[in-house]
Amino acid sequence: MKKLLKDKNISGFSKLKKEELLKAVRQEYSETELAILTKTRGYHLTPKGEQALKNNQAIVDKHPKKPGF
Length: 69
Hints:
Elements: H1 2-7, H2 18-28, H3 31-37, H4 47-55, H5 57-62
């Protein structure tokens, strides 16, 4: 995020917290620009993560589910 702000010649971001950095990036870049500049905007479970979920299904079942998941 800091590199994105630096690329737009924005200064004073070194002291910002993560939430403030996100806000600054969203103010300076459109969603289209961010889609082009960033490859990952979410997460993907690795095989190890998928196995951990399977091994701990009882714990997973105790947590509320979001619609569509």
